[in-house]
Description:
The chain is 42% helix and 17% strand. By secondary structure, it is of the alpha/beta class. A hairpin with a 3-residue loop joins strand 4 (74-81) and strand 5 (85-90).
Amino acid sequence: MGKILKKLKQNNIIKKQAGTGLKSLLRRFKKLKFEYVQCGRIDSIADGIARVYGLDGVQAGELLEFVPSTGGVIRGMALNLEKEFVGAVLFGNDAALKEGDLSRRTKSIISVPTGLFLRGRVVDPLGQPLDEKGSLPATKQELVERKAPGIRLRARIDSPMATGIRAVDSLVPIGNGQRELIIGDRQVGKTAIAIDTIINQTTLRQLEADYVGSKNVTSTVGAEKSGATCVYVAIGQKRSSVAQLSKKLAEVNAMPWTVIVAATASDSAPLQFLAPYSGCTIAEYFRDIGEPTIIIYDDLSKQAVAYRQLSLLLRRPPGREAYPGDVFYCHSRLLERAANMGKGYSLTALPIIETQAGDLSAYIPTNVISITDGQCALEADLFFKGIRPAINVGLSVSRVGSAAQTKAMKKVAGQLKLLLAQYRENAAFAQFASDLDASTKKVLERGERLTQILKQDQFATCSTAIQVVLLYAGSKGYLDILNLNQVNQFMSLVTNDLTAYNWPFVETIVATKDYDSEAESSMQEYITDTVDFIQNN
């Protein structure tokens, strides 16, 4: 009997101890926070497109991770949300993946890192560095797809975005916050206009930085923020071309104010489609901290082709030229994000479109023309004649117009457009006429000299004040007595002289953005003396 009672007591003690232990384990278990990862399996995979089952609740545009049996992780994006399957596009090579491999959600929409540290860097559309300057520091991620600013948040475009190109700044002026399309056949200088704009803007920004950093300056008053931070998006280009561009910008000290987002020809179609949106998000960061910003999409034709490839592989219904029905929305939601927010907060977009044999009425060109605020049309015939930049003045237009020009530029550009229009009209008739009257000859001669003034070498940007002096001399007839070689000599002499010395009338144009009667008389005297010097030597 005593043994039985002893055993019962031991069992009660064990039960009490077990109960206490289980309770403590349960309390510890409740304190733990578990996260589960929703996984699916690949049903089929081909051509960079994966059909995945088991990913209930996945969002459109969500980042997915695919785990091949050989190890590693390949990232992708969910695009098609069907009842049982998810259509995903892969950002990497799909050769390592096969049916049945694991796919998992990240519960995060596609985003890109933003920050001041991106200046001077070359990154891919996912924010991974492509240069040899090390990894990017940890920073805030911003969504690639963001809503465009509303109408009430926008300000009117009333300040010029100087490209440093005489033909653009005078005939098709671009304002801060504008969307100006650069369109033309391949190899006619579309990218050259964009690169010259970057060089000119970063030169202005460097001048501002030098002014503020000068020991003789005690405040930032007088340092007008006229330059801009630039974001260049390379879509479907050769890696060697992007490397050459980065090297050239570094040589002219423009890279410290520039970000390059590159989805090259060797990258997958999803990355080429995503690149413009990633670049726009990076540009919006600089805009939102008060930096005037310019973004260049080079070019959206290749993005449209990449999107067509994705859509056809995802079995979306094709439309005109086999493009999907929402290709217009693809470009409009991107370009609508460019805006002037006022008080220096602006994002200017320069999309580039490549045409076939000068056909501006094709599907993608007409779409983007209707979205943008004007176009700068380049013509192959003019390019091969040596007129570079090869801007067709008749097809080019800026819907902002003189609102994006200084008062000084307005005075010389208004007359310039009329003179060039008369020149083009008379030049067409002069081809078939042998005898021309004196007035027609005068119009043709002046038009030839104005055309010569508008010619400009690449990487040779020109300040607004010097542009005003050159265009004033040409439009007022001071150069009519010079031949074309002497006109080139005049431009070179004036550019070097006005850059090296502080002439009072130039300082007036720079300070007031205009010229009064006194400055105009000084400018006339300077031009006359220079013309006489060239004639006598």
